[in-house]
Amino acid sequence: MTGPDQPSAGQDRLPVAGGRRTWAWLRRRLGAQWTGVTWAALVGVLGAAASVVPAYALGTLVDRVREHAPASALVAIAAVIVVAAVAGGVATGAGTYLIGRVCGHVLADLRERTVARALSLPVTTLERVGKGDLLARVSTDVASIGKAATSVVPSLISAFLLVVLSLAAMAGLDWRLGLAGAVAIPLYVAALRWYLPRSAPKYAGERRAVGDNARLLAESMQGVRTVHAYRLEQRRLHDIHQASHQVRDIAVSVFTLFTRFVGRVNRAEFFGLAAILVAGFLLVRDGSVTVGQSAAAAVLFHRLFNPIGMLLFTFDEVQAAGASLARLVGVIDLAPAAAPADGGDPGEPADTSIRLSGVHFRYDGGPEVLHGVSIDVAAGARVALVGSTGAGKSTLAAIAAGILRPGGGTVRVGGVALPPDRLRARVAIVTQEIHVFAGPLIEDLRLARPGASREEVRSALAVVGALEWAKALPDGLDTVVGEGGHELTTVQAQQLALARLVLVNPPIAVLDEATAEAGSLGARTLEEAAAAATRGRTTLIVAHRLTQAATADRVVVLEHGRIVEEGTHQDLLAAGGRYVELWRAWEAHTPTSSSRQAPQRANLVRTPESSKS
Ligand SMILES: Nc1ncnc2c1ncn2[C@@H]1O[C@H](COP(=O)(O)OP(=O)(O)OP(=O)(O)O)[C@@H](O)[C@H]1O
């Protein structure tokens, strides 16, 4: 937490909050827990004060023994020692527990805020920084803070209170004994000042290296198909190897630094105790203090070895937790997907049409990929987007659905430019990235509409033609699917995504599914499911198979981020332009001629004309 105050961020990394900002965040969260903080402090001070009494009483005991005091006096002192030790132990335990509770609340709050902010991050930010860094923060960094907050920090605060009160007690015996004990303080401080500036960058570097390593691993796993396809295995392994070695080297250097620090701490302990013993000897010889007082000072100081060691040695964990906290506050401080600049209430859309006007877009720092694209989808109509790979179809679909914000131009629903959250509430998208969440199938579907009844889920599955296979699963709708559960086929997973769309029941649907990867039989199933799921909705569909374009009301041909043609399937075929080239290429690559034929439009989409016929 010693960095500059401005959050720092690499072009491809999430930002890290500065020291002042991180402290301010922590102070505010602790302020919100002030009752707990006050109780913890009171009980902690009481525990530390009671823990000092036995050493003090021990000195008195030594003096009484030397004075040949009666046994009853010695027993009374021994009783005081026992009672104070027990009371000190109980109060210290209770104080540590109360501090732990406060830390636990702050930790829970931190975790919730980080995850909430992570989930609301703009997709472009996530894509730029990679999910690995974010995952490392919400897992490794939260764990590091969790460990510090629940075990280290409470003991550390108790130790700190004990050190302060013990030094005060030593000075109370005789100020010169206190002074002798204080000889150690500059040595401890010197040890810490030697250690901290060296360890801080090492810990930050360690966290960064762990984050980079996690990112590389996550990317390699998520992109395993691409890795295989381009034979990148060796290169990825080499990169992971390098990153792992970097983590190991940093960890070793951190440990080496730490052992040198321990040597310096031992030196401070030696000089402190030696100073007390010498001062005690001289003061006893002068008759300024008793042997018992001198012994009590030595015992008090010796008893500080553990708490001081605790303070110093766990500083690294606290520092690591501080570095983690700064990384999490950096995420919390990130701006969520920005609201539109005008901010005023844009009003209610007149209908369910969607119009993109003059849309420009570039991915972070990259070249522009959409150059002023305008598309108008009338209420209830179905428009297909076609074009070569990389033309910008998926980007445009994501903009229409409010997932990406255009760099220029507008998206209007029913004539109104809605803010992103209201746009997303009206437009649902099914993307190529289908994720089946681990858990019972019915719960996976209820993610789309929490509280949906079993009957509603069944009818959504029926709409997309998935009810039969879902009922046939080992536990029907309660079958555990996703990671570690029953494995679903690509087609089944995509049917689930479409069933979620049905449950959401949006007036506007954007489809960008990977039907082309489903094989021709699966693709036909999915085309029918998509048509059923989008029936009655305004639909923009990225036509990965051109049969989807053939059944649309209108086809928009996109190339290099620009619209090059627009019209019905028949018009475009007649025009003999780019669409014809795409259609011919599609026909040439489709094995069965029957699947090449454009399916009867009435089979897929019910339009006013087809329902009349
Ligand atoms: N996350 C990203 N970061 C940077 N550039 C991107 C990103 N996603 C897409 N692009 C680039 O934007 C351009 C348009 O991509 P897009 O995926 O929208 O095309 P597409 O027509 O949907 O292609 P496909 O049919 O292969 O899905 C391409 O040049 C692509 O490389």
From TrEMBL:
Residues 590-600 have a biased composition (Polar residues). This is ABC transporter ATP-binding protein. The keyword Cell division does not apply. It is a multi-pass membrane protein. Residues 354-585 form the ABC transporter domain. The keyword Nucleotide-binding applies. Residues 39-320 form the ABC transmembrane type-1 domain.
